[in-house]
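To close the section, here is one more complete example, presented without commentary so you can practise reading it yourself. The ligand is TLP.
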Amino acid sequence: MIDLRSDTVTKPTKEMREAAMNAVVGDDVYGEDPTVLKLEETAAELLGKEAALFVTSGTQGNQIAVLTHCSPANEVIMEAESHIFYYESGAISAFAGVQPRTIKGSRGAMDPKEVEAAIREDDQHFPETGLICLENTHNRAGGAIVPSSNMKEIYTVAQKHGVPVHVDGARLFNAVAAENVLLTEYTQYCDTVQVCLSKGLGAPVGSIIAGNKDFIKKARKWRKRLGGGLRQAGIIAAPGLYALNNMRERMSEDHENAKMLAEGLSSISRLSVVNRVDTNIVVADVSELGMNSTEFTDRLKEEGVLAVTFGPALVRFTTHFDISREDIERTIDIVKNFVEL
Ligand code: TLP
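Output:
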């Protein structure tokens, strides 16, 4: 099977498995796991923040950020198709008791003027704006890179109104690899950030949230409340640390593969690629083929390729470490054959 469903599907490498096997561990709830501490220290430094916390998943990291920043009945400004709004099962309402205020973005980037207009005034009728969430790269915008200039403008507005900014950077490493910049190019324009170790970096599990020391102290308590205080967590932190140190630069290969896939798919009649491919995601519109996205992905599966539906007419393909150039060539041939026959 050529698995293009997500960059979450990568299997740990031999080096990651060895790192897990040889990890020096302790009880992390007592703050005694040296491998977790090393991972957190390394991540905080790379992200340019005072402190970091190892959490089980991207969703848990985002939820802990919302819980830590907000109080119940706050309003949280976010892009209309952001992961926190679209794909986290309504968790911010279930756990933090906040309501989302969505703004339609352009390639994942919200207009700073619209963000400013959405910040609530002090009025007894209104909820208080507790947080602004950004997403970079933006998943449903097809892995689009949100420019750091846009983040800067939003952060300036947020600071003017005393509202914190959190970045869902599940795929921030992709933006950094594509633009050849440091992580701090983006993270300087937010108070807190969540980055995934188990997407493009290829680690088996885990995410990091980073922010100032006070935020991380409170976030640690929320992690404990949610049952995310893990004991000998070095076993899973070790492959994450390996990935953080060794897998960042190679991600541009995934971007080249995605571009190649997009070109190949675009050349097939009645199939169109709807996103500009900045990173590792390609979104295709299959409506002209006379089938919906589920019929398309089912057919593709019969031929040995996995992709996910992204709406009734849209299909998402995501490249990653376990996908080679040959896999991309083969995928293009497979799609061509069943579409054009
Ligand atoms: N995204 C997954 C699915 O949940 C849709 C995927 O296959 O793309 N933020 C962003 C931007 C994400 O894309 C994801 C995962 C998360 C957060 C959540 O990460 P996990 O899966 O670790 O909870």
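Once you have examined the tokens, check your reading against these statements. The chain has a mean pLDDT of 98. Residues 6, 8, 57-59, 83, 87, 135, 139, 168, 170, 196, 198, 207 surround TLP (CB under 6 Å).
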